UniProtKB/TrEMBL annotation:
Name of this chain's protein: ABC transporter ATP-binding protein
Gene Ontology molecular function, alphabetical: ATP binding; ATP hydrolysis activity
Domain ABC transporter span(s) in chain numbering: 5-229
PANTHER family: ABC TRANSPORTER, ATP-BINDING PROTEIN, SKFA PEPTIDE EXPORT ATP-BINDING PROTEIN SKFE
Native source species: Limosilactobacillus fastidiosus
């Protein structure tokens, strides 16, 4: 049976620098998540805490009720992050063997097939690969490890458009064959929007969004028309930002639209995509109308 992974009140300081402040959320079994946040928001730090590579200043990470620090619990969590974990001469095949030794049941056959799609060979030395090739080797490793929770930090870093597409296809295929929780932390939000079911957004050291994508986008609108009419229609709503072009205003709203309010003929309402919603939510209102 697969358990929930609970991150509770995690705070992390590096020296006097507060990176994460009372971060709590729960990851459900067999779901694909996007972990989003601006550069330096603390995503990698959080992933390193979850996988027990660094310790939180306060708070806990638990699989159901067990602290994630035993072999048994850590054997259910796999993180790919930085490259510096591997010794210099290691070949891709040996990375697979290490994962097999630690987690068991490594899917060598599928990994071999994936390597071919990325034009790589198991005998290639990891440290000699290009940035994109390293990423390809790491995601191949991650998608074939037998763990219930797979964390992919920057899974498309350096991959060209063709290989990113290969990765997205393989991710879906792998998930369908063996549903488990996969957390993607990436800045290419428009590309993962269709893959993820749920978003965790870290902003200003805290969890700003912890919501299903569908529900999130259901509240994300852009409302445009003559300034006065847009202001009237959006009065009292949560307006994240506005842009003006002459007398035409576009308001980016993150709210349920009021049912009884009449939409004037000259006012148009459209939906915002995840990437733009991310920008409006994390912009701090600093560059309105710039
Ligand atoms: N070992 C460390 N010592 C001191 N500060 C650190 C350390 N690791 C990370 N930081 C700082 O913590 C903050 C969060 O870094 P982190 O790498 O977690 O962000 P991120 O959200 O993954 O960023 P990006 O999207 O740019 O990769 C940054 O300001 C970084 O400088």
């Amino acid at each position: 049976m697969m358990e929930q992974l609970k991150i509770s009140q995690v705070t992390k300081k590096f020296g006097r620098h507060l990176i994460l402040d009372d971060v709590s959320f729960t990851l459900e079994p067999a779901k694909i998540y996007g972990l989003l946040g601006r550069n330096g928001a603390g995503k990698s730090t959080l992933l390193n805490i979850i996988s027990n590579r660094i310790f939180p200043t306060a708070g806990s990470v638990k699989l159901d009720d067990q602290e994630v620090n035993t072999d048994q619990t850590l054997g259910k969590i796999f993180l790919i992050g930085e490259d510096n974990l591997y010794y210099k001469q290691v070949k891709i095949n040996q990375m697979f063997d290490l994962a097999d030794a630690a987690y068991g049941n490594f899917d060598y056959k599928n990994a071999e097939r994936m390597l071919k799609r990325f034009s790589l060979e198991g005998t290639h030395k990891f440290t000699k690969l290009s940035t994109g090739q390293k990423t390809a080797a790491k995601v191949t490793l991650a998608l074939n490890v037998s763990a219930d929770y797979i964390f992919l930090d920057e899974p498309v870093l350096g991959l060209d458009a063709n290989y990113r597409e290969v990765f997205y296809q393989e991710l879906i295929k792998s998930y369908q064959a063996r549903p488990r929780t996969i957390v993607l932390s990436t800045h290419l939000i428009d590309e993962i929007q269709r893959l993820i079911e749920h978003v965790i957004l870290i902003n200003n050291q805290q969890v700003l969004v912890d919501t299903d994508v569908e529900e999130l986008l259901r509240k994300a609108y852009e409302i445009s028309g003559p300034v006065k009419l847009v202001d009237q229609y959006t009065e009292g709503l949560n307006v994240l930002s506005t842009e003006d072009l002459g007398n035409i205003r576009t308001a980016h709203v993150f709210d349920k639209l009021p049912e009884g309010r009449v939409i004037p003929d000259q006012v148009q309402i459209g939906h915002t995509d995840l990437q733009h919603l991310f920008i409006y939510l994390t912009n701090e209102g600093g560059d309105k109308n710039d």
